[in-house]
Amino acid sequence: MNAFVQLLVILSMLFSIVIGIYFWNLLKNQQGTKTAVEKESQKEMDKLRQLRAISLSEPLAEKTRPTNFRDIVGQEDGLRALRAALFGPNPQHVIIYGPPGVGKTAAARVVLEEAKRSPNTPFRPDAVFLEIDATTARFDDRGIADPLMGSVHDPIYQGAGPLGIAGVPQPKPGAVTKAHGGILFLDEIGELHPIQMNRLLKVLEDRKVYLESAYYSPDNKSIPEHIHDIFKNGLPADFRLVGATTRSPDELPPALRSRCIEIFFRGLTEREIRIISQNALKKIGAAYDENILDIVEQHAYSGRDAVNMVQIAEGLVLSERRNRISQEDMEWVVSSGHYSPRPIFAVTNEKLVGAVNGLAIYGPHLGQIMDIEARVYPVEKGEGKLIVTGIVEEEEFGEHYGQKLRRKSMARASLENVLTVLGSVLNLELSKYHIHINFPGGVPVDGPSAGLALTALLYSAIKEIPIDNQIAFTGEVGVRGNVRPVGGVTAKIDAAIRAGVKKVYIPKANYQSYYATYSLEVIPILHVNEMLEDVFLRNAPLVYTNSLITSVNG
């Protein structure tokens, strides 16, 4: 019996020794692993320090980035609207439309900094400005990652850590939560995936984001309290959205637009491009011939273009060990960069038959003079033809039950309205005339706003009465001769001023009281006969044959 007890004692001692050795080795391995991890971490930290010690010079684009309102050139109206939307006790969500490189991001940053100093603002001094590009904010269909909305790291995923081993799902906040209390600037918001767009709209409504996981159970006692709180009450996401896009408003979801104040930044004028170029040259301290500014303003469409042209020109000069940027240097930049010249229009003081100045919008909120020309000559009755060049003949405008919808060009329809009106006014059989109307410039034209200009154009060409080239027109014409409102009138008038126009005819419904302060005469009209009388009365009295149109005498 004593031998049996002694055997048990010996076995117990051996077992204890084995267990002790096992745990000793385990502890030793852990310490060794910890030491190895620390060594590897130290090695990587050394590499990071070496990388961070290397720094190239600051790019010119960063040096010239606006830091205050004075630095943002050419967007006075847009800045005023943005300040109105974000200042005060109730800041709004905003969508900024505009071409690239005109200061949308910089304006939002500057406005937030000023808003934080406003006495009534809800933005705290530490309010964040979080910028994210919608084109890169892609999410995983399985919900593993979503940089915009946030995601949940479920226990099944590799690297879930101690909580994952315990079967605990782990919420990961996205940009909407990181921007809490500040501004989420979502660049190219029009490129956002439709699923993310719908989720974003829900967050804007609730001011919080809810996350889901099949591994979450409210009855699981092993889940930490803060994770229970997140799944129950959501992550806070009370921010103000500032979305920027180069798309047009009708390309964005109506549900998003209805939740936001819409602000328009326009393209930059030649004078504003010149100012940006001068500022860039001043920042780098470059010597230059003054006429290089003429070249930049003729070829740069945005502030980014202007800065890039200046930077390449400076690099060219330095690489050839010279100290002054010449006209030939900037011409080489234009040629090597394949920059296209801006369409620059300047009216003359001559009078022309069959040539008028229309007003159009190209790009976001930037007006342009559009010269239109016509040749009209009589032919045998019934042999008359109408030829129109330079317009969009047909367009797609949406889908209906999976079918694409097409319609005749609005510019073409506008011309047919004008022909009907002129047939009534002049009592002409238009089938006796060959009419060729051309919109020069190579850019297809569409839209109804050329109606008023076409009326003056055809009247001039048919009656052979010259029109003052310092006059411009915009407005839609109905079949009864009434002039209907059109879009972008202020931008069109600004373009007319830059081109040297002295008088503009617009629809009366578009008239604003501040137009009276402009340097040109803005004439609002209700009916085409008002324009015809004012433009052509000095040359010949008009004869009206339609009772809908009053005579000259009244």
What is the fold's blueprint, element by element?
Layout (H helix, E strand, L loop, with lengths): L1 H52 L6 H4 L12 H11 L7 E4 L6 H12 L13 E5 L16 E4 L7 H5 L4 E4 L1 H4 L4 E5 L6 H13 L1 E2 L15 H9 L1 E2 L3 E6 L8 H4 L3 E4 L5 H15 L2 E2 L3 H8 L3 H17 L4 E2 L1 H10 L14 E2 L2 E7 L5 E12 L7 E4 L4 E7 L2 E6 L1 H17 L6 E6 L12 H13 L3 E2 L2 E3 L2 E2 L5 E2 L4 H11 L3 E5 L13 E5 L2 H9 L18
Parallel strand pairs: 1-8, 1-9, 2-5, 5-8, 10-11, 13-20, 15-18, 20-23, 23-24
Antiparallel strand pairs: 3-4, 6-7, 12-19, 13-14, 14-18, 16-17, 21-22
**Structural class by secondary-structure content:** alpha/beta
Q: What count of helical segments does DSSP give?
A: 17
Helical content class: 25-40%
* Overall number of structural domains: 3
CATH topology of the largest domain: Ribosomal Protein S5, domain 2
> Order of strands side by side in the largest beta sheet?
15-18-14-13-20-23-24
CATH architecture label of the largest domain: 2-Layer Sandwich
Number of strands: 24
CATH class identity of the largest domain: Alpha Beta
* Overall pLDDT level: 81
Ends apart, CA distance between termini = 140 Å
Task: Please state roughly what percent of the residues sit in beta strands, choosing from under 5%, 5-15%, 15-25%, 25-35%, 35-45% or over 45%.
Answer: 15-25%
The dominant shape is elongated
Enumerate the spans where pLDDT stays under 50 for 5 or more consecutive residues: 542-554
Largest sheet: 7 strands, mixed
Q: Can you offer a commentary on this structure?
A:
By secondary structure, the chain is α/β, with parallel strands linked by helices. It folds into three domains: 75-136 and 143-154 and 167-211 and 226-264, P-loop containing nucleotide triphosphate hydrolases (Rossmann fold); 270-336, Helicase, Ruva Protein, domain 3 (Orthogonal Bundle), CATH 1.10.8; 351-394 and 404-536, 2-Layer Sandwich (Ribosomal Protein S5, domain 2). Helices cover 39% and strands 19% of the residues. The chain has 17 helices and 24 strands. A seven-stranded mixed β-sheet has the order 15-18-14-13-20-23-24. β13 (355-361) and β14 (367-378) form a beta hairpin.
